[in-house]
Structure formats: C-alpha cells, structure tokens
Amino acid sequence: MHWDLKVVYDVVKHQKKIKKSIRKYGYFAEHNYLHYLYNQTEWNRNIFFDYGNDKILLTQFDKKNKVWSLFPNSILAPESERLELLLETTNYILKKQKAKKFVVEVSEDVRKEILNKFKIRNGFRVCNSTDILYWPMYNMDLWDSKLRGSKWKKLRNIRNGFYKRNKVRIKNSKDIPKEELKKILLNWLKKRHSRDRVDKDYFFNLIDNNFEGVYMAKTMYINDKPCTITAGWKIPNSDNYYSAIGILDYSYPELGEIANIDDLNRLKIEGFDYVDFGGSDKVLLYFKKKFRPEKIYKTYIFSIVRR
Fold first, then answer.
1. Which of 47, 96, 97, 117 is least enclosed by beta carbons within 10 angstroms?
2. Cβ neighbour number for residue 166 with a 10 Å cutoff
C-alpha cells in the first residue's frame, strides 16, 4: 500500500488536523490533543506522522537521548490499517532517521500483532517489554454511590469516618489560585517514591493553562485547606471517562479514597458508562482495586530496534 507520508514538527500550527483525527479515529484514554501538547517539553518534542485522510500517528522525540516514542496507543486510523502505519513509521524512524530505537506503548492485542508482523520483516527486532501497565475500568452501573452492603463496607467505613472527623468541601480546580494548586503538586511530588517516573512539567503545564482540555477538575478542601487535584476527560467515540489526574498532598490518611469516591459519584451522575483510572504498576493497582473495577486491561511498553 502506498502512503503519502508527511512528518509534521509543528503540532500547534496543525492542531486542527490532530483534533479532527482524534474526533474521527480516537478510542483510547490518552487521545486528547491538549494532553498531547502538555506533554511536550524543551527536550521532548511532539512530532506527528500524517498519512492523509485524517490518518495520523502521534510520536515524541527525546532530543537528549535521541530516542523516538509512540504517544500511548496513538495510531489514529481505521483499526485494519493501524499495524501497517506503525510499520511505515518504524521504517522511517529506524532506517531513514537512523534512530537507536523506537519505544512504543500499545495494548496486549496490538503487541501480539506486532510480534507476528515483525517476524516477517527481518530488518527489525521487537525487544522484551520494559513495563506492563494495568488499567482498571469501573462500570458505573455497578458503582453504588451510597456504598451499601457488605462488599462496600471498608470503603463505607473510610468515608463515614473521614467526613465525621473533618470538614470537607469541593471546588472547581479552575477557580483556585494557581499557586495554591502548585503547592499541592509540589507536596505530592516530594512524597512520591523515588522509582516513580513523573513528568512534573506536564502537571505545571496543566495548571498554568487552567485545565483547558479537561472535562472535570475538582479540588477537595479539608478543614479549609486545598489538598487534592483530580481531573480527566471524555474518551473519544465512547461514553467513557478517563480519570487522568490524581494528585494529593498526603496531609490526611485515606485522602485518596475520599477523592476517588467523590469523583466516581459525580461521574455516575454525569451518565458515563465506564471510568478508566489509568495505567499503573501492580502496587498502585492494589489501591485502585478498592473501588472494584469490572475489568482490567494491560498496555505494554517496549522498544523496536534495527537487527
């Protein structure tokens, strides 16, 4: 198949093209133009591959390490054409650009397809996965906002005790001074485990741009002190929601449970079918399982290199 490929380096100038492609072919939690834009930094440049007819592939280029990466699952095209587009992009990056490697994050099914497809092409080698991320999905029909019954007893006790001990109120994060939000963010960053990889520039970009591109952004005030930031957006071409941001200052035990219970209650009222709590390792997944996901899917991060 012949592709009329254009490599586009200005994602702001061509934002209409990206947004149109996401509207047409978007399906994954991270398919959000401004989310893609906020991930761009001085050293990590956004570049997309335009194959015509609104078919694009979103990537990033790490200028320091000379490494290309696929923005998670971001092959925006009909499902039947995604693998061929990935192969064409890999060919450009590894052969024409002579890059060391192309790092991709894709679903379990797509990874299997890549392994089968790339066996035929001797020019490339698919490396073992460096990370597996677990993405829990919550069925809003099964989420009980009142946390009734024995299966919700632990969460119900956490909620009841927390509200009994503390004064809680919720504000739209967009209405809170940026410096207050940045204090929450800095406290969160300080207390995260050293092995956790967090792109702090992304979160500062989100706050500085007043959460543009976000469907809902909420901050909990506990005893008149802002302590959390939770935010997310609608997943394209679905009635599902991506709970992308979960930040808290750790000033109260069980703050994470309380913030997530409130978010799930609000999202149920909004009428979403499913809520996606995002990819994480097994340690964080253990926490997310408290809210009883209906299903958990996986994405794999691995490199493709020249043989």
1. 96
2. 15
Question: In degrees, to the nearest 5, what angle opens at C-alpha 19 toward C-alphas 18 and 24?
Answer: 100
d(CA 103, CA 121): 18
Spatial separation of the C-alpha atoms in residues 214 and 235, rounded to whole Å: 11
Question: In the chain, what is the greatest distance between 2 CA atoms, to the nearest angstrom?
Answer: 65
What does the alpha-carbon distance between residue 179 and residue 272 come to, in Å, rounded to a whole number?
A: 32
Token output for 236: 């394209």
- Total Cβ atoms within 10 A of residue 41: 16
Q: What type of residue sits at position 133?
A: L
Query: Does domain 6-132+301-306 correspond to CATH entry 3.40.50.1980?
Result: no
> For 177, phi and psi rounded to 5 degrees?
-55, 135
Per-residue pLDDT tens for 91-117? 999 999 999 899 999 999 999 999 888
CATH H-level, domain 142-272: superfamily: Gcn5-related N-acetyltransferase (GNAT) (3.40.630.30)
Residue ranges for the chain with pLDDT beneath 50: 194
Look at the pTM and tell me if it is higher than 0.70.
yes
Same fold, 6-132+301-306 and 142-272: yes
Residue 70 · residue 57 · CB < 8 Å: yes
d(CA 302, CA 133): 12
Q: Where are the domains of the chain?
A: 6-132+301-306, 142-272
Per-residue pLDDT of 234-245, as tens digits, reads: 999 999 999 999
